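ok here's the first one, seq then struct tokens
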Amino acid sequence: MIAAVAAAAAAFNLVCAGNTIFGADWKHKTAFEITLRVDLQSGRWCSHACKETQRIYGLSATQIVFEAEDSSGSGTLNMVNRESGAYIFRIREDMGKVPIISQIGVCRRAPFSGFPRQQF
């Protein structure tokens, strides 16, 4: 019974909402909402239609890092603070100098809606 409760606590959805900011002048904003499905025990996550899962990049007492920028600062950063719920998704190119798009918001925990069924 305790193991089942612990497993259930490790699997949850995060419903994150905030603003998408883009453009060189950072003046363009639109609201966003995204649901992330997370299973800390298996180290997997997915978003949107959740057709396939990905490996969680990093996990600590204070952060879940879904995706991380490379050492040059380019690529995608996707993470949530486990204490405050603060969420950031950012895509950078050109050696990390200019973010192409950023989503900044707050996540709240929701019941786990599951992962896609494995085919084999």
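and now the second one, same deal
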Amino acid sequence: MSKSKVAATALSRCLKTMQEAAAPWKVPGEVVERVRALFETDFDHELGSAVRWKAWTAKALRLAKYVGAFAAFLAERDAGVGAKPSSVEEHHVLAAVAMVQDICPPPQGTVRTYGRLCAGVKLSPMVRAAAGAVLRGAKLKATA
């Protein structure tokens, strides 16, 4: 559970944006909660104050939108041509997070190469490899 109400609200807003961007594909509640658990500490650390969240809102929501849309793209690609939209799986979301981490800017005012929001979530080498394979045109089934 988040220590900061601001951080908890910010993370909830980002997760909702991710889910909306994935439409018509659905991100199941259990997947949303696992993603929440991955980012809670980082949101507390980086966005625990109203001032920090205000400075980061546009970027954070844009990145959440990218994750949702890219996860839906991966799910649809794995489902095949003509498949009806259904559920986005956790490995689709994790691969999308890995891709977005590569373009994630640091929070304003930091001197780090990447902010904790971008580099703090550790993804397994298998997920990173799957994300790289996606860029090269591979399907993503059974990589989680």
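notes on #2: The two ends are 25 Å apart (CA to CA). Helices lie at 5-22, 29-47, 50-79, 90-101, 116-119, 125-135.
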